[in-house]
Design brief:
The protein has 307 residues and is of the alpha/beta class. The protein is built from 11 helices and 10 strands. An 8-stranded mixed β-sheet has the order 1-2-4-3-5-6-9-10, sandwiched between helices. Strands 7-8 form a two-stranded antiparallel ribbon.
């Protein structure tokens, strides 16, 4: 489909975030759902996504008595871009700690892919930062073939797209298992419009780092360090895996749940879902998350810190 006029395109871009949270020299954009007096749940997306990927889940959480915040990671969506191109895992963990400071009590962190690893790294630095943790298709153990496929897609259109339809074609090729929307307009929330072209809504430095930086190293903490953090987890934890994921394998999940790592963690395998679990089977995912929060987190709110 041909691109619309500039004015028509720009009016289709989503409205500004409902909350902005400072983190170092950057500002993180967030949307909120529910009553801010309810227990907080912070949802963090994966690399290359935006806070909008959690919108349906957050609405459901807000309606069920949780204060849900969907946040754009640094360099993504409406959050600030690092002037130095600093997208190391430590920087993302700093942002997670800043999110905790912005709330009056520790939240449950629900993190997909990069958002999950950033949450885990932050908990390693401050065990009291979270009341609970849900890792969505991510752990210290990952399949490089799957992560490489993600990076290949993210680096695949450095010059942007002539139209939203062209971007939709790229997504359809990347996610052939997904039913293609009849109207690609919804994709605009993941795009930015500049100089007559549509670009993915992330800082190019996230995947094309400054000279001398290796993105594979910047986004990875040594396996031993992340594994050690897992062994120290003392909060309710759940690992969610898409049964068709090429990023987190069955063996990876078993290693995470091993007696020497996280024997107290729960495990949820979402049938037919791929790496982006919430988008592939949102209804099932929401039910599992709400059940975990109600059973493992809600009682602790009554018991207090000693619980």
């Amino acid at each position: 489909m041909p691109a619309n006029s500039d004015s028509e395109q720009l009016t289709s871009i989503p409205s500004a975030p409902s909350r902005r949270i400072p983190s170092g020299g950057l500002t993180l954009a967030a949307d909120t759902y529910g009553d801010d007096t309810d227990p907080p749940v912070v949802l963090l997306h994966g690399g290359g996504q935006t806070r909008h990927s959690w919108r349906r889940t957050a609405r459901r959480l807000g309606a069920e008595g949780w204060y849900a915040l969907t946040v754009d990671l640094r360099g993504h969506g409406d959050s600030g871009w690092s002037p130095e191109g600093d997208y190391a895992l430590d920087a993302f963990a700093d942002d997670v700690l800043a999110l905790r400071r912005a709330l009056d009590r520790p939240p449950v962190f629900i993190g997909a892919s990069l958002g999950g690893i950033a949450s885990l790294a932050a908990i390693g630095r401050d065990p009291d930062v979270a009341r609970g943790l849900v890792l969505v298709d991510v752990s210290p153990f990952l399949q490089h073939r799957g992560t490489g496929r993600i990076m290949e897609f993210m680096r695949g259109a450095p010059d942007g797209f002539a139209s939203v339809q062209d971007a939709a074609d790229a997504v359809a090729a990347y996610l052939p298992h997904r039913e293609r929307p009849r109207d690609p307009a919804g994709l605009r929330k993941n795009l930015r419009f500049a100089d007559g072209r549509w670009y993915w809504h992330w800082d190019p430095a996230f995947v094309f780092p400054p000279e001398g930086h290796d993105p594979r190293l910047r986004l990875r903490t040594p396996l031993e360090e992340l594994s050690a953090i897992v062994t120290r987890l003392r909060i309710p934890t759940m690992l969610v895996r898409g049964s068709q994921s090429d990023v987190l394998s069955e063996d990876d999940a078993r290693r995470f749940l091993d007696l020497d790592l996280a024997p107290h963690a729960e495990f949820c395998d979402v049938a037919r879902a791929h790496h982006m679990v919430a988008g592939d089977d949102n209804a099932v995912f929401d039910v599992r998350i709400l059940e975990f929060l109600q059973r493992r987190i809600r009682p602790r709110l009554v018991l207090g810190p000693a619980g």
